[in-house]
Amino acid sequence: MKAKHIAFLSLSVLAGTFASCTGSHEIKITGSAKNLDGGTIIYQKSIDGMFNSQSQDTLKLNTDSTFSLTLPSNGYEQIRLFLWGKRYLGSFIADGGNYRLQIDAVATHPISILEGKNEKNMEVSRLMDELGQDVFDVLSRKGDKWGITQDTIATSVSKKLQDAVLALDEKMKGVDKDLYEKACQNTRIQTMWAFQNQLFGIAYRYSEATKQSWLKEWEKMMEFCRVNHPASTFSPAFHEVVYNNAGITYYTKEEPVNEDLKKNPNKLIFHYIEKNLTGQAQESAMALLFLRDTNEEKYDPEILPLEERFKQLYPQSKWQPLIDEAIAKNKAFNQAKTPDYIHFPDVDNAKTFKDITDLYKGKVIFMDIWATWCGPCRASFAYVKPLQEYAKANDIVLLYLSIDRPEEDAKWRKMAAHYDLMGEHVRVQEAFKDEIYTTFGNAQKALSIPHCVIIGKDGEIKFKSAASPEDMEKLKSQLKEAAQAEA
User: Fold this and answer.
1) How many domains does the chain have?
2) Over the stretch 317-332, which tens digit does the pLDDT of each residue have?
3) What is the pTM of this model?
C-alpha cells in the first residue's frame, strides 16, 4: 500500500536546529529544497509557544524549488518539517528574525541553517535529538539506553530517567532563559512518556503491590516533570503525556469519576484536564483534544458540547480558528446524508462469508477489507473514483467489508457516506469473523488492512490479495481476468 500519509513517530523528536534569538514578532524563513523525488514538504508549528502536533500545512515551493515562509512569533516557536509520507526532516526553532535554510531530503541531517544559526543552540538541538531517539527506541522496543525496559522497580526506572534529565539540564546551560526553560521541560515531558510506557506495561501484569509502587512513583515523577508548567506545552509529546495521565488516573489508579464520563474518552480527558491543569497547559491540552479528533478522523459527536466550555475558559484563545475548523469538519461528518448508491444489506442472519458473496453471484466482486480506525484504509479512499467509474461501466460489485466492532456501527455507516464509497457495505458478523481472518490473514490469522480481494462470477476467490485502487492499471487487468473466467 503506497497511500501517502504522515508517518509520525508516536514520540515527536526535536531533531532539528535551534536558531538565534532576535525578539522579533515574525519568523521569516527562506531557502531551497532538493532531492524531494517529487515529494511534498509539510510542516507543523507552535502557537504562542504551544506546539500544535495535530495540524499540518504544505510548504509551498516555487518552480526553482525555493521557498519563503513567514510565521508569527511570541517567544520561541517551533516548526517541524516532514517529507510527506516518507520521512521526518527535522525541526527549526526561532525567536523571530530572518533565516535561510537548505533542505536536502536524502541527507543524514536534512536541514542546514545557512544564515541565522547559533552554535550553542545547535548543540542543544543535537542533545534533544539524541534524547528523542532514545525515548522512541524505548517506546518501540528498538533500544534501551537507560536499561529500563526490563526493570520492574519503579524507583529504579524513575531514578534512571531523572538522572538522564538532570545531566541534560547541565549540558544545555548557556542558552537564554526562555529557550533553556522550554528545552528542559521538553526533556521532562519526553522522559515522562517513557515512564508512562513502563507503567502501562507493568501495572496489569504484576501484583497489586507492584502496581501500587508504580503509581506512587508516578506521582513523584509528576512533581519532577511539572506537566502543568507552561513551557511543557512546547513539547510535541505534551498531549500524549496529558492524555496518558488521564488514563492512569481513572483506569489504573481508579480514582472515582462519573461513570457517564468513562463511557466517552474525550469527555473523560477533558474532565481530567479541567480538574488537573491550569493556564497555558490547560488551554493547549484542551485545544489539541478537538484537533486530534479531526486529525485522526474520529469525529466524535460528544466532543461538540465541550467547545462551549473551552470558549468560556479561553475566549481569546489563538487556538480558536483551528478549533472552529475541526468542529465544522466534525459536524459535516455526523450530518452527512447517505446517497442512494451506498447500500447496507441486512446480513444479520449470515453464517458464512459465502452467504455474503452469494448475494452478488453472477457478478465480479471487488472487495476492500477495512476498518474506521485504520488510517491507511482511509487514506486509500482518495483513489476510489476511477475504480467506481470502471465498476459502473463493467457491472462490477464494489463490496466494502468492515471489521469494526458492533459498537462502531453508527460511525462505520457515517464514514461510508463521508468518503462517498459507492457500493455494498457489510460489517463482519461474529458468525463468520474467524473465517475472514483465516482466509485472508496469515498463518497466525493476523490480517493486514486495507486488504483487497477479487471474487469471480462463480463466487470463487480469484485474487486473494488483489491490487489496490491506487494501482488502477494492475487492478483493471485483474478485474478483466476475473470477468473472463468461466462463471
Assistant:
1) 3
2) 999 999 999 999 999 9
3) 0.83
